[in-house]
């Protein structure tokens, strides 16, 4: 059986690593990796391939950055000849980025079976580009592999046939479980002169937060207060960096001496930073899941989540870009008034193995 795996953006590489390994282990799946080139910087792309020891992509479409329409269209244009040449039995896409829907559409139109890993997640907020990507990818997928029960429920509510839906667990947690011993050896805390539990970590990259100076300003109002108490380590995403460079907010960030901007971190350093932090402040989806697994308080800078399990039984609390709510949540972290997380069902490090078994049975 021949499968083309697609990865394009930073969170995709984390998910594709355990999958390619599990496919190799079955012996029965011949898998090819296509990198769309949506992310291309060293710390957004290549470092993940090295740290996860993922083989070099078989094909790199090298599309780079552009508007949503242009980026999606360029990926489709470049991916079609790859499919025509390799004629796989299935295309596997992960997550909810533009590369996911672009390659999914090409596969569906060429009548190649489409497999979606992380299917069914919904924020019910169509202003998010990812929500559109999720809805459309799921609508054309043949196998929908879910990371949490809400995914299964959402797909059922949308009328997806029962035999296409599987709860398999979370491949991002597979990567975490496997790489934790290596991450423990990272010396990032020494390099940044940080003590365990004596700092917070911030990540921000959602357009709703960083492309809107008002929202970014409200978040900064809270950060200016929090950083007076302890260092806030802020690995800056390129989108966010660009916005800071051209806005007066950049000056405010510079003046907050304990808000420490660093380059985007590699996976192992970031895992070490996260697992030793007092709390995370983030608008990332994946980090809501990782902190749930690690039991670290996660102040989620979003008004909603596509991963409700992280707020139901995990350690994440939704506060949006609301200064007061961020500070209230911070006070609760300090006072230890925070829900201790429980590990969600099937977040056990073996999701990729279950996916391999399903593919062997269903695609063959
Ligand atoms: C994308 C995904 C988002 C995911 C995020 C993870 C979509 C719609 N969004 O958002 O869901 O959470 O990746 O990071 O697919 N840039 C660089 N170097 C790079 C890549 C990007 O400098 O390697 C800069 C470019 O200026 C680009 C901007 O970052 O315009 C945004 O990149 P893009 O891929 O369009 O979206 P992300 O914000 O990264």
Distance between the termini: 7 Å
- Give the mean pLDDT: 97
Report the count of strand segments. 13
The CATH topology assignment of the largest domain is Rossmann fold
Bound molecules: uridine-diphosphate-N-acetylglucosamine
Strands side by side in the biggest sheet: 3-2-1-4-5-6-7
Sequence-ordered SSE layout with sheet pairings:
Elements: E1 2-7, H1 10-26, E2 30-35, H2 42-52, E3 59-60, H3 68-86, E4 90-94, H4 98-109, E5 113-117, H5 129-140, E6 143-146, H6 149-157, E7 165-167, H7 171-184, H8 188-191, E8 200-203, H9 207-210, H10 213-226, E9 232-235, H11 238-245, H12 249-255, E10 259-262, H13 267-275, E11 279-282, H14 285-294, E12 298-300, H15 309-312, E13 316-318, H16 323-335, H17 351-362
Parallel strand pairs: 1-2, 1-4, 2-3, 4-5, 5-6, 6-7, 8-9, 8-11, 9-10, 11-12, 12-13
Bound molecules: uridine-diphosphate-N-acetylglucosamine.
Outline the structure in words.
There is one protein chain. The chain has 364 residues and is α/β, with parallel strands linked by helices. The chain folds into 2 domains: 185 residues, Glycogen Phosphorylase B (Rossmann fold, 3-Layer(aba) Sandwich), CATH 3.40.50.2000; 155 residues, 3-Layer(aba) Sandwich (Rossmann fold). 49% of the residues lie in helices and 15% in strands. The protein has 17 helices and 13 strands. It has a 7-stranded parallel beta sheet, sandwiched between helices. A 6-stranded parallel beta sheet has the order 10-9-8-11-12-13, with helices on both faces. Helix 3 crosses helix 4 and helix 10 packs parallel to helix 16. It is globular and about 60 Å long. The termini are close together. The structure holds uridine-diphosphate-N-acetylglucosamine. The site of uridine-diphosphate-N-acetylglucosamine has 20 residues, from helix 1, helix 2, helix 5 and helix 11.
């Amino acid at each position: 059986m021949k499968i083309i795996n697609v990865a394009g953006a930073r969170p995709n590489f984390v998910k594709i690593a355990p999958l390619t390994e599990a496919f190799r282990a079955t012996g029965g799946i011949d898998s090819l990796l296509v990198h769309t080139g949506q992310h291309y910087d060293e710390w957004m792309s290549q470092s993940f391939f090295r740290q996860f020891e993922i083989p070099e992509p078989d094909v790199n479409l090298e599309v780079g950055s552009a508007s949503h329409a242009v980026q999606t269209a360029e990926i489709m244009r470049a991916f079609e000849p790859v499919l025509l040449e390799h004629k796989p039995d299935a295309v596997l896409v992960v997550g909810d980025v533009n590369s996911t829907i672009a390659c999914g559409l090409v596969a569906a139109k060429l009548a190649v079976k489409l497999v979606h890993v992380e299917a069914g997640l919904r924020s019910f907020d169509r202003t998010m580009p990812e929500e559109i990507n999720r809805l459309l990818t799921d609508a054309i997928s043949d196998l929908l592999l879910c990371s949490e029960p809400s995914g299964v429920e959402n797909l059922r509510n949308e009328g997806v046939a029962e035999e296409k839906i599987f709860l398999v667990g979370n491949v991002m947690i597979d990567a975490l479980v496997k790489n934790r011993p290596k991450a423990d050896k990272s010396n990032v805390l020494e390099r940044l002169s940080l003590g365990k539990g004596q700092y917070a970590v911030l990540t921000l990259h959602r357009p709703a937060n960083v492309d809107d100076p008002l929202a970014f300003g409200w978040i900064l109002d809270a950060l200016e207060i929090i950083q007076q108490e302890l260092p806030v380590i802020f690995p800056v995403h390129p989108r966010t960096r660009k916005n800071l460079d051209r806005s007066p907010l950049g000056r405010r960030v510079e003046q907050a001496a304990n808000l420490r901007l660093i380059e985007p971190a590699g996976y192992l350093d970031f895992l070490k930073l996260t697992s030793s932090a007092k709390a995370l402040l983030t608008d990332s989806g994946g980090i809501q899941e990782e902190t749930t697994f690690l039991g670290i308080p996660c102040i989620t800078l979003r008004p909603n989540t596509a991963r409700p399990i992280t707020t139901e039984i995990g350690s994440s609390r939704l506060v949006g870009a609301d200064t007061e709510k961020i500070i209230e949540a911070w006070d609760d972290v300090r006072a230890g008034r925070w829900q201790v997380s429980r590990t969600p069902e099937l977040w056990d490090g073996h999701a990729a193995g279950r996916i391999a078994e399903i593919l062997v049975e269903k695609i063959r």
